Amino acid sequence: MDLRKTLRTTAPYIQKLAENGYPSARDLLLYFPRAYEDRSNIKKLEELVEDEVQTVKLKVVKKNIIRTRTGKQIQEVTLIDENEVKVMIQYFRMSYDFKKIELLKRYYVIGKPTGSYGKVKFMHPQVIPAHDTSGAESESAEVGRIYPIYSDMQGIKAAWFAKKMFLLQPYIAELFTTDLPETFLDRYDLPNIVQTISQLHFPESFEQQVAAQRRLFFMRLLRIQLHSLQSKLNYIHTKTSQEPDRTYIKEFLATLPFTLTGAQKRCIKEMIDDIHGDRTMMRLLQWDVGSGKTVVAAAVAYHILRKNNGQIALLAPLEVLAVQHYRSLAKLFLPLGIRIQLLTGSLTASEKKKIKQSLAAGSIDIIVGTHAIIQQDINFHNLQLAIIDEQHKFWVRQRGFFQRFDSPHLLQMTATPIPRSLTLAFFGEFEVSVIDEMPAGRKPIQTKIVSNTEAKKMKPRVLTKIEQEQKVFVVTPLIDESEHLEDTASVLAEREETQAIYPELAGKIWLMHGKMKSADKDQVMKDFKSGKYVILVSTTVIEVGIDIPDATIIIIKNAERFGLSQLHQLRGRVWRNDIQSYCFLQTPRKSWETYQRLRHMENTMDGFKLAEIDLQIRGAGEMLGTRQSGQTDVPLEILTDTKFLAEVKEAWLRLTQHHPEYIQQVLWDETQEKIGELLV
Q1: DSSP string, 392-408
Q2: Running along the chain, 680 residues long, what does each successive block of 10 average in pLDDT?
Q3: Domain definitions of the chain by residue range
Q4: pTM of the model
Q5: What CATH number matches the domain at 247-279+292-414, 3.40.30.10, 3.50.50.60, 3.40.50.300, 3.40.1190.10?
Q6: 475 forms bridges with which residues in the sheet?
Q7: Strand (E) positions, 54-112?
């Protein structure tokens, strides 16, 4: 098929499509609309509903340009319906539509009507000529149907797609000939591929469009599930199950100066059962900061060390977090004669070489580090457990590194409480353990929303806490959300402002941001912990795992820019001891919407509840920040529908058991990363 001739377009458009990954008609049909307007119902004026996009057919009787007192121009068009009731169209900027509108001609007016002073008005609507002969290309494509709205594509406007896709409609059946089994589609009430493609671009009714979208979302989540299953099957290996032995767990717990919570003990039991089971453990351990995930992981590690003489690797995303884990585990394990070592990128070449040799020889029991652990020249003597902290900071393919060493048990930890629906959808390969209980004596953080003016009045309280040898975090968001933007400017400006508020703390206020070298960040945290600095101004680089026990106040600037889950993560930086801590959510605009959203932070310390609310407000991709963020273009009513998600999970089991020959059709082809590829 000659795409240029079929679309009746020019070579530059075909080139732009190819540059964006849509070189053929089949590819282009996989570029789906993002929304729809009902243009199938041409309404009468008396049927219009205010502030909804609707279509009316009207005749132009007058064009006029009105000059305001300030010298601006308003372009105004007067139209009438068949009963000669007047309607006004107004443009408040120079408009091409105004120029092309002709007197006494009829047009379809598409937009949101408003009523004022008894008149109906449309502000900047879309205006389409009403042809006397039906079937003309422009009219048939733009009016008289449920109209698809596409996203712009680097020089190609959305309206172009709506018009040109219409020309591809006759070719859908010959372009899409491969589909999943009819019995499978019938079981889950899914339309076939031709119906799906057709109803996504050219829906005959909203019911059919919804059914087609349901298949799109179903297949997208099915693909994620299949990837999870394939990842699990590729990783795990079977073994002979054993009766769980908790001798060494009891021995380890007896060395602790505190008693574990019931939730911690339950999670340890789940993992020991896994380790003694008939296959490799793959488990996700989650709950809030400060809930005691590290000591749970340490107990399981001790069991493996003593029972199997195995090695343990703990991987952290930041050097400062790796150092923190190393120090915590060293306190627990060194008195027990367990050999533990830290491996990070900041070590010298000779230091790294020595550690790698010891690791391969088996003279190191536990290695803690960053990405430096998962390099090609790393070898283990007997690796049996890999612990990955804040697992969403790592790409899934990095698990392949550990697979080289006979697939050790895998424990992934996260301090982001993930709603059950998202766990079901995106973490299907993992069993999930939840520490849903905080250590005894931990006081809830007092959280308060404050305006900029109220924040300045907090100075006496802050100084009092500092006099009591407590510390303060001040968190500022990036000026721009772009990951490529230098984030130093916002931190520097915030430090200057903080120094102006607290001149008596000159030299005791410092900063930290993501562009700093790991060694510099580590030094800042050491100085902050030692008391050299008492206020640390930072971006969200402090979000993950940093432990400063005597930091009891966190002030989060422009809190309205953060999601609730991220605010909760940041708040956890001052929830590290039994001293009363405070979180101030500073916002310059106490709008009703902002206030209502942030009030959830004031009212609950339940990370799961906040995560559920965050999912409703922001969506899964933003909340998780995971490898799946590019695959979460699924509406919230789907992601929060556990019945639907359970159905998808049942579907991948059925597909693998009854139709394994179709799995590769569903799985992601990384050379063709387009949304529609998941349909076929």
Answers
A1: GGS-GGGHHHHHTTT--
A2: 92 92 92 88 85 88 88 88 88 81 91 77 88 50 85 87 91 91 93 94 93 90 78 81 91 92 94 93 81 90 94 88 89 94 91 95 95 91 92 58 91 77 69 80 86 88 92 78 49 85 91 80 85 90 72 92 84 80 86 81 84 69 43 62 82 86 67 36
A3: 41-144, 247-279+292-414, 446-604
A4: 0.67
A5: 3.40.50.300
A6: 538, 556
A7: 54-67, 73-80, 86-91, 106-111
